[in-house]
Amino acid sequence: MLENIADAFVLFLNWDNILAVFAGVLIGTITGAIPGMTTPMGVALVLPFTFSLNPVTGILLLLGVYKGGLYGGSITAILIKAPGTPAAACTVLDGFPLSQKGQARKALDIALFASVFADFMSNLALILLAGFLASFALKFGPPEFFTLIIFALTIIAGVSGDRLAMGVVSACMGLILATVGLDVVYGTERFVFNEYELMAGLNFIPVLIGLFALPEILNHFTKPVLGDLEHNQLAGEKGTFADFKRCFKSIFRGSLFGVILGAIPGIGGAPAAFLSYSEAKRTSKNPENFGKGEIEGVAAAEAGNNGVAGATMIPLLALGVPGDVITAVILGAFMIHGLTPGPIMFQTNIDMIYAIFIGIMLSSLYLFVIGKLSIKYISKISDVPNRVLYPIVLVLCAYGAYAVNNNLFDILVMLLMGLVGFTMLRLNIPTAPFLIAFVLGPLLEDNFRQSLLLSHGEIDIFLRSPICIVFWCLTFITLVMLVRTYFKKPAKMSAPEGANNSTAS
Predict the structure, then answer these.
(1) Which residues contact 460 (CB under 8 A, 6 or more apart)?
(2) Which residue, of 46, 309, 315, 487, has the greatest Cβ tally within 10 A?
(3) HEC per residue, 63-102
(4) Interatomic CA distance for residues 116 and 403, integer angstroms
(5) Could you tell me which of 127, 132, 131, 129 has the C-alpha nearest to residue 359?
(6) Mean per-residue pLDDT for 417-426?
(7) Ramachandran region, residue 81 (left: φ > 0; alpha: ψ -120 to 50; beta: rest)
(8) How confident is the model at residue 472 (pLDDT cuts 50, 70, 90)?
(9) Angle of CA points 203, 208, 210, to nearest 5°
(10) What is the DSSP string of 447-490?
(11) Cα 309 → chain centroid
């Protein structure tokens, strides 16, 4: 083993590999910070440039873009409420309110600290626990995925705050829109209305941009002009070690969520971010502050998001199964270079795998350095007056929506979702449950129907596996705790009244 590690260092230690990791993280951070420019898009655009590189250099370049993109989405999410990546939509919940309070710098610093720590934890999991986590992920079939998603949907209550009923309404809207398109089993049309553009369903990126970025722009221009108050400077103190220490429990827990969910193919960073956020709120001493500008919420969301980065490589390297869309692109890069990830690769190219591991660990250091620079320079965007900034953001949003499929119809979807989001904003309906349900809805339906096809319609397939039973128990426990919390709130509110009566008597 020591000989293989020595060979890996010889294979890795050249300027091409070192610069490739740095360039990848830088490109990913910039790509992630542009609203509408997704991380998969950035990885796909860089892929052709890896054809002429040696395999290790090319793969490390793509991995750098992946890791930088996951963090970069938090920058505009915090500053202008325009998440650059789907998972960064969770960071918006507390990041943007902190920016409005003049604490944008602290939010950006904590997001960076949480991202780097979670990324480092994920890399360690990839190196140390690849075999165990990959074997665990291999046991997941459609029934296990279905029960996992049912459990994940319980986080809707956690992100709805005191407006649980409105949160359920919002989630139902998201589930309904998730069914638009052709039925994957029978091919029947659902909510298509004879528009062929809708047959593939609503693309996630235009929906995301319309739901989060446009309502803020519309809300700004429908308010009276307040003069200098619209100048939103990057103010406030920097994030300190004391802030990191206070959030460490949520960061560590979010990193674990990211590692576990990242190792399961098909889950991704968004569910991990929302699950981490919901758990941080549930265990917090000040849960009422979440959604209003709580630094712990930013830390939890970014930890869950970035915790998946290294873990998604576990099923790819160990089993040859891509963990998400991005690792599917990276799998293509392996195959272009004549390599097939999986157990055989650990026998025939172990030095190459170790060289990739070394580059992945270096990427965490680069992420911290580039993240600090991005806070200093990219975050200057908040110094631009809103009357100038928001039209620019609107153009970027339109470009991002169009660039997904080069289709003007996606811009129309973005505008319509912007009106929906603006209406929800005015009616005080939370948008996070809508997004969660929209993301998880297709997965929920597909795995439910696949399970019934496997069991020939027998519903007990969802109770046959120990993993399914564990997730059902977790869902039940979560719901019981939510009900208890709901019934405890009135008692707490009436306590002072009873105290006053006893004093008066």
Answers:
(1) none
(2) 309
(3) HHHHHHHHHHHHHHHHHHCCCCCHHHHHHHHHHHHHHHCC
(4) 29
(5) 127
(6) 88
(7) left
(8) very high
(9) 100
(10) HHHHHHHHTTT-GGGGGSSHHHHHHHHHHHHHHHHHHHHHHHHH
(11) 10
What single letter denotes the amino acid at residue 349?
Answer: N
Q: What is the pLDDT of residue 3?
A: 65
- Read off the tokens for 197: 């553009």
Q: What is d(CA 351, CA 347) in angstroms, rounded to the nearest whole number?
A: 9
Compute the distance between CA of residue 308 and CA of residue 297 in angstroms, rounded to an integer.
18
Look at residue 307 in the predicted model and tell me its pLDDT.
Answer: 87
Amino acid residing at 121: M
DSSP state of 290: T
Q: Dig out the tokens for 9 from the structure.
A: 């260092």
Q: Given a cut of 80, is residue 444 above it in pLDDT?
A: yes
Placement of tokens 């869309």 in the chain: 325
CA distance 413 to 301: 27
Q: In sequence order, which residues have a C-beta less than 8 Å from that of residue 64 and are 6 or more positions away?
A: 20, 21, 22, 23, 24, 25, 26, 27, 28, 363, 366
Contacts of 271 (CB under 8 A, 6+ apart): 152, 261, 436, 439, 440
Number of CB atoms found within 10 A of residue 103's CB: 22
- Could you tell me which of 250, 65, 41, 31 has the C-alpha nearest to residue 158? 250
pLDDT value for 237: 67
What residue type is 109 in one-letter code?
D
Higher pLDDT, 278 or 131: 278
pLDDT(233) > 50? no
pLDDT at 500: 43
Residue 23 burial (CB count, 10 A)? 18
List, in order, residues 6 or more apart from 68 with CB less than 8 Å away. 24, 25, 26, 27, 28, 29, 30, 31, 32, 367, 370
Please state, in angstroms and rounded to a whole number, the distance separating the CA atoms of residues 41 and 375.
Answer: 23
In whole angstroms, give the CA distance from residue 184 to residue 197: 16
Q: Above 90 in pLDDT, residue 289?
A: no
Dist. CA 163–CA 42, nearest whole Å: 37
The residue among 64, 32, 34, 72 whose CA lies nearest residue 46 is 64
User: What is the distance between the alpha carbons of residues 133 and 263, in angstroms, rounded to a whole number?
Assistant: 6
Decide: 342 and 320 in contact? Cβ < 8 Å. yes
Instruction: Name residue, tokens 């564990």.
Output: 470
What length does the chain have?
505
Q: Quick one: which of 347, 363, 353, 311 has its CA closest to 56?
A: 353
* Average pLDDT of every residue of the chain: 78
Q: Residue 23's pLDDT is what?
A: 93
Give first-to-last CA distance, the chain, whole Å. 79
Let me know: does 46 contact 31? Beta carbons within 8 Å: no
